[in-house]
């Protein structure tokens, strides 16, 4: 981790101790624009996504990954919406999460969104194990991305995930910089657990 990451630790105040990778995970918008992700690291996070659980092992998830400085990265970045474009360009890689909503034979893939989410959770944990941070985004121009990468109709871009090294929050505009260091919050456990016996 960089010095910035060390100072910008935003651990949870969870009621129970969590494994360190989950305890330390958070979604930065301040990325170090000089930092890079190695080919092996990018392969490792994509492998983690590949090995996530999958309904009937159907794996209705695809990925488009571009490292900063490449045409693929630029193309992905151009299709982030408004606010996301102001910070995500400093990350080391952008990964489009693509749903396979329908098979080549026309069969529906009803769990595609769930499957993609599983794989991005695994990617996130692997990235943190690599000393990186991750920020998922739903604020994307999905149709524009599909056209830019010439995707068949059954493939639907659904999220973009920024991966990189935490930088200093002062690079962000004031409101975003404040959010970057604000306490992280969640609904209380007894609100989200409907039944526990
Ligand atoms: C499906 C999904 C979509 C998200 N979309 C965006 C987004 O478009 N822009 C953004 O800045 N953050 C986005 N986020 C990040 C959330 O705002 C963030 O995870 C949440 O505030 C909790 O913060 P934490 O991840 O640091 O715990 C998204 C997260 C998820 C899981």
Summary?
The protein contains 9 helices and 4 strands. It has 197 residues and is of the alpha+beta class. Bound molecules: flavin mononucleotide.
Low-confidence stretches: none
Query: How can the largest sheet be summarized?
Result: 4 strands, antiparallel
Oligomer: single chain
Supply the number of helical segments: 9
CATH architecture: 3-Layer(aba) Sandwich
CATH homologous superfamily designation: NADH Oxidase
Number of strands: 4
Q: Could you tell me the mean pLDDT?
A: 94
The hetero molecules present are: flavin mononucleotide
Report on this model:
It is a single chain. The protein is of the alpha+beta class. The chain has one domain: NADH Oxidase (3-Layer(aba) Sandwich), CATH 3.40.109. The chain has nine helices and four strands; from the N terminus they run αααβααβαβαβαα. Helix 3 packs antiparallel against helix 6. The longest helix has 18 residues. The radius of gyration is 17 Å and the shape is globular. The site of flavin mononucleotide has 9 residues, from strand 3. Flavin mononucleotide binds next to strand 3.
């Amino acid at each position: 981790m960089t010095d910035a990451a060390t100072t910008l630790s935003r651990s949870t105040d969870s009621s129970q101790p969590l494994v360190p990778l989950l305890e330390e995970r958070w979604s930065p918008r301040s990325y170090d624009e000089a930092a890079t992700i190695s080919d092996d690291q990018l392969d490792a996070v994509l492998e983690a996504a590949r090995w996530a659980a999958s309904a009937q092992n159907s794996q209705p998830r695809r990925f488009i990954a571009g490292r900063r400085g490449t045409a693929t990265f630029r193309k992905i970045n151009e299709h982030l919406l408004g606010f996301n474009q102001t910070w995500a360009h400093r990350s080391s890689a952008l990964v489009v999460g693509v749903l396979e909503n329908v098979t080549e034979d026309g069969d529906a893939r009803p769990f595609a969104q769930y499957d993609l989410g599983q794989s991005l959770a695994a990617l996130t944990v692997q990235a943190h194990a690599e000393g990186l941070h991750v920020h998922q985004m739903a604020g994307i121009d999905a149709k524009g991305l599909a056209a830019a990468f010439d995707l068949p109709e059954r493939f639907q871009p659904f999220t973009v995930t920024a991966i990189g090294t935490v930088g200093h929050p002062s690079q962000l505009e004031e409101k975003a910089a404040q959010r970057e260091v604000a306490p992280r919050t969640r609904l209380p456990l007894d609100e989200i657990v409907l039944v526990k016996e």
